[in-house]
Design a protein that fits this description.
Number of domains: 1
Mean pLDDT: 90
Number of helices: 0
Largest sheet: 5 strands, antiparallel
Shape: globular
Strand content: 35-45%
Strand order of the largest sheet: 1-2-3-5-4
Number of strands: 5
Order of helices and strands: EEEEE
Distance between the termini: 17 Å
Structural class: mainly beta
Length: 75
């Protein structure tokens, strides 16, 4: 497993939300998740030390820590 650079994949992602500390992205071109190598639907990135996630629809997700950020890939 390796890190994930959002800017490297920016051409394939659509930014849905950005608060400065967190961002939410939609995967438009089937970019592979660095944890499981399968395409993901959404990407949530945070630099906060603690974050609360709302209830989800039961979709599986992968976590990747990269430097000062944590990336949550929802499949």
């Amino acid at each position: 497993m390796s890190g994930f650079d959002v800017h490297e994949h920016r051409h394939a992602l659509k930014q849905l939300r950005d608060t400065g500390d967190t961002s939410l992205w939609e995967n438009r071109r089937a970019v592979a998740c660095p944890a499981c190598e399968e395409p993901f639907d959404r990407l949530f990135t945070t630099r906060r030390s603690a974050t609360r996630f709302p209830e989800n629809d039961g979709a599986r997700f992968c976590l990747v820590r990269d430097g000062d950020a944590i990336h949550v890939f929802r499949h």
